[in-house]
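Sequence in, structure out.
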Amino acid sequence: MDLQPYTPGALPRHLAGREREIRRIRRALAPVVAYGEFAGAPTVFHAVRGLGKTSLLRHAQREAEALGFVTAWVACAKATPYLPDLEAAVQEGLARTALTESPGSWSAGRRTLGGELGLPGLKVTAQVESEARDESAPEASVAAVQRHLHDAAAHVRASGGAGLVLFVDEWHAGRERDTSVLLNAVQGLGGRPEENPLAVVGAGLPSVVGALTRAATFAERTAWVRLHPLDPDPSRELVLEPAAELGVGWDPAALDLVALQAGGHPYFLQLIASHAWDAADPSRGDTVTADHVEQGLLGVRDQVTEMYEARWQAASPAERRFIVAMAGIGEPVVPRGEIARILGVASQKLGVPRDRLIDKGIIEEAGRGRLRFTLPGFGAYVMDRGHEGT
């Protein structure tokens, strides 16, 4: 069968194991739907790469739109202003739902994509295909952003919609100035909850917690939600359901092997299942077996090795020594004190390389004073390659 039901690196066809997180978002949106009220502090999901943050937000975006919300999506990029993109996304959301005749500050020149959009003093020409930004324009003010978000959200509600939801992906990478403006504007809207039917949902790497609180100290009151690896049952479901839609089954032993090898990592589940599917080349009524998974793992290892090598190359010499010490312990979860003992330093001296490795998404915290690698198998790769470059 030429059709491939798995999508490693892209949005999955089936979301599994995130029911609790979806309920969190539904609860955040509930007062907006029921009363037209401000949803409160942003809900922000954080996890290392590959655990499905973007997939979760896209699922939530579809649910929000089904509830009558206008949604605006922006993905932040390092050191790049994102408020112009957010403004354009709000306008595009209004355009998609035919709510482009906004009142007040939404001027006639901002009513269609392709016109000049933007907050006062901050211009962006938005096109469906591309955007060109005036980098020399003055910064947007908190008051301007607050006014425009209020006008958009209130207009949606007055026109029969539920309200406005902002989705901010990769928020850890957002420019601090823009994050400060946005958070202060949203905080201000909360002063009149009955007039601002608005919610904010975001996602980022674990460093997003520090990024937002540096931008605005009150962001510590954000509703932080950490995403964890999937349990075995939803891991199997994520693999089984897309195949079942095509009339193809999976042997229970094959599902167990995929779940074991992926370690609850959604990207790895998609990657391993994809290679196993290619090895099986099934037709409707066929079954993917453990032998197919074993064959597929050969291709997976080649691809994953490139990912491991990229992470190794991204680490500084000091960070590599930290990685080697951590890998040498040989356990999935490693006490920080044990790493310090191997390196012959005090535990508090590990703060800088640890934080940098967390920011790079190479390791993550696994409880107080405990760490683990974010990619399954990375520790074994480090030990196999030797201590080159340390």
